[in-house]
Amino acid sequence: MQKVNSGDDLKKQIAELEIRSKRQEAALKESLRSTGESIKQTLKPANLLKTGLDTVRHTPSIKTIALNTVIGLVAGYVTKRFVVGKSRSMIRKALGVIVQATITKMVHNKLPEWQNKAANMVAKQKALANPARITV
């Protein structure tokens, strides 16, 4: 800013500052409007679902966890069907729910350990099937 010496210079600088202030206000409003539109697009249910599925699809650990969860749920459901069967007894149905929850949790938690054991067993079987030839 320059030093103001007269009333006319003061009025001129005030007018320039008001114009600059209005431009900045308009730019800020436009920025806010475009940001609001962007947020509206991002928060649409379809876009949220798409983003979530993309995240799951591109994250290997989430895939593994989801698969373990599904396997656990299926194991729990099948076990419940074996326990309850076609019974109409409330006690048996309650027992089935407890068994289902227990089996689901156990399978979900133990599945990675079981997968590692299975992979080790397969690796050992392959090593026994194809012994290394020692040449002298």
Structure explained in plain terms:
With 136 residues, the chain is mostly helical. It has a domain at 45-129. It has four helices and no strands. The chain has helices at 7-42, 45-58, 60-84, 90-129. Helix 3 crosses helix 4. The longest helix has 40 residues, at 90-129. The chain is elongated and about 95 Å long. The N and C termini lie far apart (91 Å). The mean pLDDT is 86.
Provide keyphrases for this structure:
single chain, 136 residues, mainly alpha, 4 helices, 85% helix
β-strand percent reads: under 5%
Helix proportion: over 70%
Gap from first CA to last CA: 91 Å
Mean pLDDT: 86
Show unreliable segments.
Answer: none
The secondary structure category is mainly alpha
N-to-C series of helices and strands? HHHH
Brief characterization of the structure:
With 136 residues, the protein is mostly helical. The chain has a domain at 45-129.
Annotate the secondary structure layout.
Layout: H1 7-42, H2 45-58, H3 60-84, H4 90-129
